Amino acid sequence: MEKKVVTFGEILLRLSTKNAELFQQSNELQTHYGGSEANVAVSLSRMGISASIVSAVPDNEIAEGALSTFRKHGVNTREILKTEEGRLGLYFLEQGAAVRGSKVIYDRGGSSFALLKKGSLDWRNLLKGSSWFHISGISPAVSQSAAEASIEATSIAKEMGLKVSVDLNFRNQLWKYGVKPDEVMPEIVKHADVLLGDPSSINVMLGTSIPTKPFYASADDLLPSYKVLKGEFPNLEHIAMTLRTVKSTNHNLIGGALFHDGNMYDAKTVDVTSIVERIGGGDAFMAGLIYGLITEKNLDYTINYAAIASVLKMTISGDFNFFTSDEIESYMQGDMQGKLKR
Fold it and tell me: Which residues pair with 52 in a beta bridge?
């Protein structure tokens, strides 16, 4: 039986500076389409997994440009709601360099997704025949109505027997509609089987008090935190996070950690320099995690696959991870030397 993944989140138009310019320097901006859950869908489709996006977009040519881009990568966009009200959400990216980090500015108020209401989508029909549902903590951060729609979608997915994954994705610039994350996210995470998040973000998003450290050198450092979280959310089967050491904007050490059944699984650390773009690296990691779990790979494979997917994404521009499963596996097997292929 074919494994099908449904993702739910806002589709965004990204406008980014070129050549690591500051916003105040730039006379032109490059365009890309993206969005956390949409990025996951593209990655999974490239990996050979059937993936669809459920969202809401305005009924205009700009939104159609976004949908055609996702369709080009094999993602099903047929269940996206087209609305008369609202607009396509925007975000602006100032590309960093060396010691200067990148900067994001959101412009998402009044978007079609922000106006989406609980009951607007027929989730039982949308999820029929699917085995996995994915959402991030960004979707309920956009507006009160989007939060209610996110809770509705997640609860129905769980009721229908789908595996549910949540990338906490705390965004401090969002959550501006008078509700704190821990008033919403526990209602979503209580239905989740898989959670991606670091202990500090988990405490902010879920209102927990799990142990935290300023730095995590290995997967074992996370074991006390994830054991406590598992005690508070016993539904969680797998908990994971990227292990990242930032040397500079363009130089990171990337690994990964995965918790299951009281044990930690550690990805081999990869030295990544010079990074082309970090945006989308976490979404590629999430997609790699889903790929390993949905295809029932062993957990050592799964966490290393997720880490390499993230590493490869950071070698290209834009929000999407273009690499196939065969390509990711090739790099997992040691093809990481940057050799010319003829």
Answer: 6, 76
What value does the mean pLDDT take over residues 294-322? 96
pTM: 0.96
Question: Which residue reads 């996951």 in tokens?
Answer: 40
Q: What does the block give as tokens for 208?
A: 């927990």
Q: Domains of the chain by range and CATH?
A: 4-332 (3.40.1190.20)
Q: Which long-range contacts (CB under 8 A, 24 or more apart) does 67-75 make?
A: 67/11, 69/33, 70/11, 70/33, 70/38, 70/41, 70/42, 73/42, 73/45, 73/46, 73/320, 73/322, 74/45, 74/46, 75/38, 75/41, 75/42, 75/45, 75/51
Please give the angle made by the CA atoms of 50, 51 and 52, to the nearest 5 degrees. 135
Q: Read off the pLDDT of each residue in 35-44 and give the average, rounded to a whole number.
A: 97
Rg (CA), the chain: 19
- Among candidate residues 284, 253, 318, the one with its CA nearest the CA of residue 95: 318
What sign results for the dihedral spanned by CA atoms 329, 95, 113, 236? positive
**171 vs 187: CA distance, rounded Å:** 18
What is the enclosing helix (H) or strand (E) of 312? helix 299-313
Residue 137 above 60 pLDDT? yes
